[in-house]
């Protein structure tokens, strides 16, 4: 597709604005939960569903979103997704009941399910191979930037305005993206107009939703929760049925031949692995900064910025390194640097100054900047313009489910070590139960009782749990290094058809 050299970068900038809104929405809610609990009289279960409704719909709709974009036009569905995301943000801001907010959060998830893969699917359509790694870096950075910005922006807004403002902040980003995509982005769709696959849509959506719900519930309720395992098992069975159907039908939702490409398979899996490793840091560090370091949500967001700074530095270095050592060694080096940063982080304790924390999260960010865009680009490079929508959706579905599983497993690792590291002899059962819930609850109880010994055991138990979890994350990154060296093909492949093959 011919497009003016500068115009395609403006299109990418417009898409990045939309992605910033999505990223903000993922983390800004955490800041507002205490306020929502009071203003909407929300129960603990309803507070969980404010997040779960978004994640479930996002996971369930990713694959149909990619297919619809390929069939009917990626620009058309991007614009519809931006309108839906903006309208749902408005609905969230003015929700007056918990039930309404849950419905609006589900609508936000639906908008995000189209925005994320279809913005990603524009990359192989707009950019040639030599530019695509840089474009993927910008896309990934926009995706990540919302993580620390959410608490920063949300914390400031909650200090000065009503809680609805944390959703209204999405509207300027959506408006800029709408105008720019309308004016600058050319329409693109698959020339072979893939037929609808209603059975594939139903089974993939139900399966991904079941797995996401089951794993999320395990993270919340623990590994012994029977309903969680039932949902997870049902989701996996439905996904197995989905794969069998995709092999039989003449018009499948996803092109299974993509998995015949080592670059696509390992690029997508390694990008998921990088996400998995980094989610541990993003899960534990805000709790450490707030409960142990006594920092508010606004300060927490500011203190996460070195991770993004490192990512940008790593991505810049990646552009040069790829031309010297190739994408395979560059990605492997990225995983090795992630591992180094996380393993340095295992030495963090209650007395560690922020300077030490900033160093190791910066190192981790550099590794992420080297590994994540390179592995994603390896998978994207296999996609033809014909199937870029559903192919990008498949990559994002793997990352989404991988991230949910990562949070559940790593969160459970942290919580298990925290609870078993506590020494609560002599405390009433009710008080001890509260302390075991989380480090935030434990610190609050200790300060309310003015008990330094209790505070010490809570902090020590959490720091030990965080160190154990970071060891696991570091081990995952080391595994990523070896898997990259063994399985990721050295050379890129220029797709010529909708089917994937390795060079």
| CATH fold topology of the largest domain | Growth Hormone, Chain: A
Radius of gyration: 22 Å
- Mean of residue pLDDT? 83
The CATH superfamily of the largest domain is known as MFS general substrate transporter like domains
End-to-end Cα distance, whole Å, is: 23 Å
Number of helices: 17
Quick overview of this protein structure:
It contains 17 helices and no strands.
Topology:
Layout: H1 5-39, H2 44-72, H3 74-93, H4 98-126, H5 129-160, H6 165-168, H7 170-184, H8 198-221, H9 226-248, H10 262-292, H11 297-303, H12 305-345, H13 354-380, H14 388-420, H15 429-437, H16 439-448, H17 452-487
Search tags:
single chain, mainly alpha, Growth Hormone, Chain: A, 17 helices
Description:
With about 500 residues, this protein is an all-alpha fold. It has three domains: about 1-195, Growth Hormone, Chain: A; about 195-250; about 260-503, Growth Hormone, Chain: A. It is built from 17 helices and no strands. It has helices at about 5-40, 45-70, 75-95, 100-125, 130-160, 165-170, 170-185, 200-220, 225-250, 260-290, 295-305, 305-345, 355-380, 390-420, 430-435, 440-450, 450-485. The radius of gyration is 22 Å and the shape is globular.
């Amino acid at each position: 597709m011919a497009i003016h050299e500068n115009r395609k970068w403006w299109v990418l900038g417009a898409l990045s604005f939309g992605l910033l809104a999505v990223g903000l929405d993922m983390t800004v809610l955490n800041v507002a939960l205490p306020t929502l609990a009071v203003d909407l009289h929300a129960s603990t279960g309803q507070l969980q569903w404010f997040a779960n409704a978004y994640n479930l719909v996002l996971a369930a709709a990713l694959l149909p979103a990619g297919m619809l974009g390929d069939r009917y036009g990626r620009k058309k569905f991007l614009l519809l997704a931006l309108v839906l995301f903006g309208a749902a943000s408005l609905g969230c801001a003015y929700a007056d009941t918990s039930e309404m907010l849950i419905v609006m959060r589900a609508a936000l998830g639906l908008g995000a399910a189209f925005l994320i893969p279809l913005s990603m699917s524009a990359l192989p359509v707009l950019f040639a191979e030599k530019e695509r790694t840089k474009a993927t870096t910008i896309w990934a950075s926009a995706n990540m930037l919302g993580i620390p910005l959410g608490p920063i922006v949300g914390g400031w807004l909650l200090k000065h305005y009503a809680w609805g403002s944390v959703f209204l902040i999405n509207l300027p980003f959506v408006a800029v993206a709408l105008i720019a995509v309308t004016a600058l982005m050319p329409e693109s769709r698959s020339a072979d107009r893939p037929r609808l696959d209603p059975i594939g849509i139903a089974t993939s959506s139900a399966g991904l939703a079941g797995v996401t719900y089951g794993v999320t519930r395990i993270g919340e309720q623990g590994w012994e929760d029977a309903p969680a395992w039932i949902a997870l098992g049902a989701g996996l069975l439905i996904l197995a049925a989905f794969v069998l159907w995709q092999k039989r039908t003449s018009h499948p939702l996803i092109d299974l031949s993509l998995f015949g490409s080592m670059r696509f398979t390992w690029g997508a899996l390694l990008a998921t692995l990088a996400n998995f490793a980094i989610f541990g840091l993003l899960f534990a560090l805000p709790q450490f900064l707030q409960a142990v370091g006594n920092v508010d949500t606004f300060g927490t967001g500011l203190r996460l910025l070195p991770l993004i700074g490192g990512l940008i530095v790593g991505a810049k270095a990646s552009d040069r390194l790829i031309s010297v050592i190739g994408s395979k060694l560059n990605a492997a080096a990225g995983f090795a640097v992630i591992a180094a940063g996380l393993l340095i982080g295992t030495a963090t304790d209650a007395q560690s100054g922020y300077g030490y924390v900033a160093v190791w999260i910066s190192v981790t960010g550099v590794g992420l900047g080297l590994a994540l865009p390179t592995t994603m680009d390896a998978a994207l490079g296999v996609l033809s313009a014909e199937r870029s929508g559903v192919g990008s959706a498949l990559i994002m579905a793997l990352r989404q489910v991988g991230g949910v599983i990562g949070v559940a497993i790593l969160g459970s690792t942290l919580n298990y070590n925290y609870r078993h590291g506590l020494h609560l002899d002599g405390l009433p059962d009710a008080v001890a139960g509260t302390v075991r819930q989380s480090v935030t609850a434990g610190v609050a109880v200790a300060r309310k009782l003015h008990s330094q010994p209790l505070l010490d055991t809570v902090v020590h138990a959490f720091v030990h749990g965080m160190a154990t979890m970071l060891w696991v994350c570091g081990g995952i990154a080391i595994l990523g290094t070896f898997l990259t060296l063994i399985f990721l093909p050295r050379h890129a492949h220029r797709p010529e058809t909708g089917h994937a093959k390795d060079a």
